[in-house]
Specification:
Rossmann fold, 9 helices, alpha/beta
């Protein structure tokens, strides 16, 4: 039996006539999700911090509109939603960056910003989106899988542990808007490259050898999951891991 994906041109597009806002959509997973959503018939609204990169992404996609601002700035975020033409159907938040540091090397100001920043961003977006997202639409955010099992770096692990609980509670509080979370392991993006530097290729090789899927997870994998969550109106309050089996390998190795 064939398992090939049917092209969007040969079936009903999953997001036809809908509007998807991607906060942090000028590169990486955010941009790839915007591409997938556009291919499924959605109109796209993009935001990002870098105006030049944002305009390039918008030109590629034929975006409905763009807004260049730092999502971590509460006033700028409020202004964006105040001027956003409602209603919309989905908001995906990929803005923000995890903080990775061992205790001995930790900058506590950076740690404080990381611990407060990502959860507060999701809360602020939820408040603004609640009155603008159509019933059955989605607020979708992201975190990492580190800290779900075993030991990880303290700050990133704490944030990753907090967001599933935040997601579940928001799913009740702002219903009928649906709230979901994607927890990703290693994804081969520009951000991963900047974090790993010269160690990037070794990490790719290690994952290809050890992951059950036999390859590295890419932005398109996460984007496909994001679009599925947007289109499946039975999904809310849940966390969806996408790591190619990375946690399974870690758990088996620890035994």
């Amino acid at each position: 039996m064939s398992t090939a994906t049917v092209p969007a041109t040969e079936r009903e597009r999953q997001l036809r006539g809908q509007t998807v806002v991607v906060i942090g959509g000028s590169s990486g997973i955010g941009l790839e999700t915007a591409r997938h959503a556009k291919a499924e018939g959605a109109e796209i609204v993009l935001t990002g911090r870098n105006p030049d990169r944002l305009q390039s992404a918008a030109a590629e996609l034929g975006a409905l509109s763009t807004a260049a601002f730092d999502a971590g700035d509460p006033d700028a975020l409020e202004g964006f939603f105040a001027h956003l033409k409602a209603p919309i159907d989905h908001v995906m938040v990929t803005a923000g960056r995890a903080y990775y540091a061992a205790l001995a090397d930790m900058d506590f100001d950076d740690a404080r910003r990381a611990l407060a920043g990502h959860p507060l961003l999701i809360l602020r977006v939820a408040r603004h989106a609640a009155g603008r997202v159509r019933p059955g639409g989605t607020l979708l955010s992201m975190c990492g899988t580190g800290g779900q099992t075993g030991v990880s770096l303290a700050v990133s692990a704490a944030v990753n542990a907090a967001l599933p609980a935040l997601t579940a509670n928001l799913a009740l509080e702002i219903a009928p808007v649906r709230v979901n979370l994607i927890a990703a392991g290693f994804v081969d993006t520009g951000l991963s490259a900047s974090l790993l530097g010269d160690g990037l290729q070794a990490r790719r090789d290690q994952l290809r050898e050890t992951l059950p899927i036999g390859r590295v997870v890419g932005p398109a994998d996460v984007a496909a999951l994001a679009v599925h969550i947007m289109s499946n109106t039975a999904l809310t309050g849940a966390t969806y891991n996408i790591d190619g089996g990375q946690q399974l390998v870690a758990a088996a190795t620890a035994k």
